[in-house]
Amino acid sequence: MLLFVFGLFVLVLLKPYSDIKPYVDMVFDGDSVQTSGDMQVNLYHDEDMEVRIKEIELDDSAVDTTPEKPHYMIYPYYGDRYGSLTIDSIGMKEYPVFCGWSADILECGIGWYNGSTFIGKVGNVVLAAHNHTYFYLLPQVKVGDTVVLETEYCKLTYIVKEIVTFHENDLTYIRQLPDHGDRLTMFTCWNNGRLGMSEYRLACLCDIVEREWKDVEVPEQ
Questions:
Q1: Overall pTM surpassing 0.70 (yes/no)
Q2: What is the distance between the alpha carbons of residues 47 and 181, in angstroms, rounded to a whole number?
Q3: Per residue in 3-36, pLDDT tens?
């Protein structure tokens, strides 16, 4: 097994990901990504901390397919399992999304940048993951693909509008800028098709097409 892993590492350094995909699939099965228990125990806060539920209002310009419902958001604590991400076109099925993107969180799933918009609100929601695990398939995403981001309180559907590469010091795509609109940004390290760390990033920019709110049980005050 150690020889196999070492051989895979050498291939990662020398070959583009498309050439080694059959070998990587043996380790990172796209249909059964391990989530380390989905971080059942949150190391960043006590289990008995209160659930933070608040009602929000969206302005008239926001996409809202359930306007007749009150909109309640469950605000996550850092390290919480926040939701799931599905991109059917590339075989990503309900990959776990966590609040935050520290090293330990990214070992367990996709990280939501806690400086970006909360999922459900209008703005730029930013997600990141490693290119050798949970965003290994991200380079296969194409313009026009459908992306579904779901939490306990809402389900958001996006369409991929643009795919870009940028330097790690360029914060344009993760900032909250007026021209970003109502969108989702997903990014990972970009090594010209090779796996591993890099100073460049590959990002998929997605526009929202549907925002569906779920029924949320609000605790009595």
A1: yes
A2: 35
A3: 444 444 444 444 454 444 433 443 344 444 444 4
Taking phi first (over 0 means left), then psi (-120 to 50 degrees means alpha), and beta for anything else, what does residue 190 get? Answer: beta
Structure-token match 């369409």, residue found: 159
Measure the CA–CA gap between 79 and 150, rounded to whole angstroms: 17
Residue with tokens 């608040």: 54
* Cα 16 to Cα 67: distance, rounded to the nearest angstrom: 46
Task: Tell me the C-alpha distance between 8 and 58, whole Å.
Answer: 48
Domains and CATH numbers, the chain: 32-213 (2.40.260.10)
- Count Cβ neighbours within 10 Å for each residue of 112-137 and write b for 16 or more, e otherwise: bbeebbbbbbbbbbbbbbbbbbbbbb
Longest dimension (CA), the chain: 60
C-alpha closest to that of 97 among 51, 38, 153: 38
* DSSP string computed for 103-138: HHHHTTSEEE-TTSPPBTBSSEEEEE--TTTTTTTG
